[in-house]
């Protein structure tokens, strides 16, 4: 309230944000990250309407470890899109993290630039290796709007512009195309393994199990006929 009796709203003190229609307590993400003993401090910010960025202070951790930890402990919509690892977070004179002095994130990590696309083409092992991976790759390109581009089969869905709503759309596309029940392959399994390579392995397991089931069913019928 100022001297004229007017109240100025300056935002929430608990750092609650709304991302893609869902309310998120940033402190919950921070507490999750601080569960890792190698992290001594961290801060999470909302960058735009679709992304969260996490700045962590550590000298003994990598991005994949951070992402895996979050995937195991947080809902998909609360997992930061980009993790920035710093030796020391900038502090203000009163000892708090100075958010204005945080280095800008590398936004190229959110999308596939022409350079990364070229690298993917040069490294043949990053391209789809079979028909199933090619189908999954095409679905990813359609959902992520990467028409005419290549996505590495080891790229993390959430590191190249994906978010929870798009992942749900991806999961439903899988169910429609490969005809499986969510009790057999839950969305959680795909979230824990968010690459084209890993998704192909999950979906391949369904095909193998179906073939074994059909073989056993046929064998059982044939044996029954012989007894008759």
From TrEMBL:
Signal peptide as annotated in the record: none
InterPro entries xref list: ACP-like_sf, AMP-bd_C_sf, PP-bd_ACP
Gene Ontology MF term list: phosphopantetheine binding
Domain Carrier: 127-207
Top-rank taxon: Eukaryota
Any GO CC annotation of this UniProt entry: cytoplasm
Biological process terms in GO annotation: amino acid activation for nonribosomal peptide biosynthetic process; secondary metabolite biosynthetic process
Stored Pfam families: PP-binding (PF00550)
Record protein name field: Carrier domain-containing protein
Lineage: Eukaryota, Metazoa, Spiralia, Gnathifera, Rotifera
């Amino acid at each position: 309230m100022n001297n004229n009796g007017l109240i100025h709203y300056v935002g929430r003190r608990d750092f609650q944000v709304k991302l893609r229609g869902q309310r998120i307590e940033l402190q919950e993400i921070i507490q999750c990250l601080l569960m890792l003993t190698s992290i001594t401090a961290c801060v999470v910010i909302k960058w735009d309407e679709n992304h969260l960025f996490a700045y962590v202070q550590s000298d003994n951790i990598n991005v994949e470890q951070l992402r895996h930890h979050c995937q195991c402990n947080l809902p998909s919509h609360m997992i930061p899109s980009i993790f920035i690892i710093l030796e020391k977070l900038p502090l203000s004179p009163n000892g708090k993290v100075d958010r204005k002095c945080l280095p800008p994130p590398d936004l190229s990590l959110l999308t596939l630039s022409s350079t990364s696309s070229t690298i993917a083409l040069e490294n043949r092992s990053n391209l789809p290796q079979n028909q199933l991976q090619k189908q999954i790759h095409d679905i990813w390109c359609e959902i992520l709007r990467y028409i005419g581009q290549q996505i590495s089969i080891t790229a993390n869905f959430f590191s190249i512009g994906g978010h929870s709503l798009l992942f749900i759309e991806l999961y439903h596309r899988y169910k429609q195309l490969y005809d499986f029940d969510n009790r057999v392959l839950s969305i959680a399994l795909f979230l824990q393994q968010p690459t084209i390579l890993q998704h192909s392995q999950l979906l391949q397991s369904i095909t193998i199990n179906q073939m074994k089931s059909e073989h056993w069913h046929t064998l059982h019928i044939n044996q029954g006929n012989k007894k008759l």
